[in-house]
Amino acid sequence: MARGDIPQDSYHLVGVSFFILGLGTLLPWNFFITAIPYFQGRLAGANSTIVTLSTNHTGPADTFNFNNWVTLLSQLPLLLFTLLNSFLYQCIPETVRILGSLLVILLLFALTAALVKVDMTPGPFFSITMASVWFINSFCAVLQGSLFGQLGTMPSTYSTLFLSGQGLAGIFAALAMLMSMASGVDAQTSALGYFITPCVGIFVSIVCYLSLPYMELARYYLARKPSLAQGQELETKAELLRSDEKNGIPNSPQKAALTLELDPEKEPELEPEEPQKPGKPSVFIVFRKIWLTALCLVLVFTVTLSVFPAITAMVTSSTSPGKWSQFFNPICCFLLFNIMDCLGRSLTSYFMWPDQDSRLLPLLVCLRVLFIPLFMLCHVPQRSRLPTLFPQDAYFITFMMVFAVSNGYLVSLTMCLAPRQVLPHEREVAGALMTFFLALGLSCGASLSFLFKALL
Questions:
Q1: Keyword annotations for this protein (predicted)?
Q2: In this predicted model, what pLDDT tens digit does every residue of 157-208 receive, in sequence order?
């Protein structure tokens, strides 16, 4: 620490606590989408599980459009609570928001785990699951924003650790799925163990949060109430949500974006007719400066959420039934996406190309639209209209690698460029605007997934 009067982080406990809290906030979304085969099996009318579904070469029919609904009902709360952000933070105490959200998420995930042992008809099971998805993601949105409100009072190192934990959530969920499948236990026990895992993660997150007041360094920083804390929270939350997912970000790929508000290296050129004003920035003026970057962010997430996981989770291996076909989708869809997406996000820590003045950025973003037909023409057994032009597994793996890397890189790049296009006192508003457009892109992509699935 630069100042001697600032307490030390003994045994790095504060950093570890925020890392675990970051991991816990994105576990629900990732565990739901990774378990899509389990839910499809239950909705197909059988009390199936992850293991039995994985050995099914063609996969169960998604009669309830579970892939699409789970994505849409996960992203709509994000958009809603982005709009209600200011109201919630003024009316509900911080401790109530954080601890209450964690407890509700834990209870709802415990319900999801308990339903593994309950025989239910598909209709009620679908309704209960969708209600759980909606409320879990609503409280996750409140939780994430509240925690970033606290992180706004602390050094950026802890924001980076928090985001690193969130980045591992997707990889953690995919590995939990693979371990569940490879465990060799009976099908129900395998599924039960899979859903108990995030319950343990949320419980540990609760313990970490409750322990923060007993740590001297945490007490020192959390007692401070800087005037810009909420603005830092909004800008940093935008960094988080680009995971969707979150929207889902390893090591320190967000470090560059998190420190932009403190980086005077690049100042935007002032327009001759617009003198610099130190007062409250205009939302319209800020939007006019970043509209193209914001539109790129919307399009990136729209393309990603329109096919992932609604379409990509339906792709199966073209090889004969066996071990590879059993593990194909968990590895090549979810695990590969999260790893490559994290790699793409980390690249902005080393270079940022193209810059904010280049017209190549919109071109690169628009080119990602090609991934929609590419994935739709892969080996998806449940199709009635489009042909299969890319049946081999290598095609899907290649598409997924480029798709995930480009998603992570372009999302990170747009989030880094937006603050550089405005004046320093306008960056708070720019962060809030980018947060809104990020949530808008996620919701648009989730909505379009219904259309693309119907075209198969």
A1: Cell membrane, Glycoprotein, Membrane, Phosphoprotein, Transmembrane, Transmembrane helix, Transport
A2: 887 788 788 878 889 999 988 888 887 777 788 888 899 999 999 999 999 9
Q: What one-letter code names the amino acid at 169?
A: A
Q: What is the mean pLDDT of the chain?
A: 81
Query: ω into residue 354 within 30 of 0, thus cis?
Result: yes
Phi-psi region of 184 (alpha: psi -120 to 50; beta: other; left: phi over 0): left
Structure tokens that stand for 424 in this block: 């320093």
Packing angle of the helix pair 156-182, 13-34 (nearest 10 deg) = 40
Contact 167, 342 (CB under 8 A): yes
Angstrom CA distances, 99 to 108, 164, 254, 315, stand at: 14, 21, 26, 39
**Whether residue 231 has pLDDT greater than 60:** no
How many CB atoms sit inside 10 A of residue 276's CB? 10
* Burial environment of residue 204 by CB neighbours within 10 A (0 to 12, 13 to 18, 19 or more): middle
Q: Which two tokens stand for residue 228?
A: 């810009």
Contact between 386 and 362 (Cβ < 8 Å): no
DSSP result, 104-116: HHHHHHHHHHHGG
Contact between residue 236 and residue 260 where contact means Cβ atoms under 8 Å apart: no
Nearest CA among 148, 30, 18 for reference residue 431: 148
d(CA 39, CA 34): 10
The Cβ-side half-sphere exposure at 100, using a 13 Å CA radius, reads 12
Cβ atoms within 10 Å of 433's Cβ, excluding its own: 23
Domains, the chain, ranges and CATH? 12-455 (1.20.1250.20)
Dihedral sign computed on CA atoms, order 254, 258, 264, 266: positive
C-alpha distances in angstroms, 371 versus 141, 303, 360? 29, 8, 18
In contact, 301 and 369? CB cutoff 8 Å: no
